[in-house]
Design a protein that fits this description.
- The protein has two domains: 55 residues, no CATH class; 65 residues, Double Clp-N motif.
- The chain is an all-alpha fold.
- Helices cover 59% and strands 0% of the residues.
- The protein is elongated and about 55 Å long.
- It is built from seven helices and no strands.
């Protein structure tokens, strides 16, 4: 599948989840310290099953019926608000969320950048006149 295909983006994010959310940069930094993240993931998955580090446990215990936001999700929402205000927009839209995701760093920003989606490329696309 080509690097720009949606499936490859999903695959990149899924692989990062498998590494417990570590970005490639995190894994490389750990490798420089002699820690092989891939080997750790394999050993954990041998014992606990594929995706054990993904954090997608369905049996996480009691649920109040009200979902909370992770620290990262709150940061994206806060940054999207700042982006919308800076662009003088009156509401937060999906474009503001996408712009926020591209500047906050981490796994999602890395996967988007690998597919050519950066703050600059999205901002340029939004600023360009719509085709007639």
């Amino acid at each position: 599948m080509p690097a720009g295909a949606p499936g490859s983006l999903v695959s990149a994010l899924s692989e990062a989840r498998r590494r417990a959310g570590l970005s490639r940069a995190d894994a490389e930094a750990l490798a420089e310290l002699g820690i092989d993240v891939g080997a750790i993931v394999e050993r954990v998955e041998e014992t606990h099953g594929v995706g054990a580090l993904a954090g997608d446990r369905k049996d996480a215990g009691w649920w109040s019926g009200r979902l909370g936001f992770s620290r990262e999700a709150k940061a994206v929402l806060e940054r999207s608000l700042r982006v919308a205000v800076a662009r003088k927009d009156r509401e937060i839209g999906d474009e503001h969320l996408l712009l926020a995701l591209t500047v906050l760093g981490g796994v999602v920003a890395e996967a988007l950048a690998d597919h050519g989606v950066t703050f600059t490329s999205v901002d340029t696309a939004l600023s360009s006149p719509a085709p007639s």
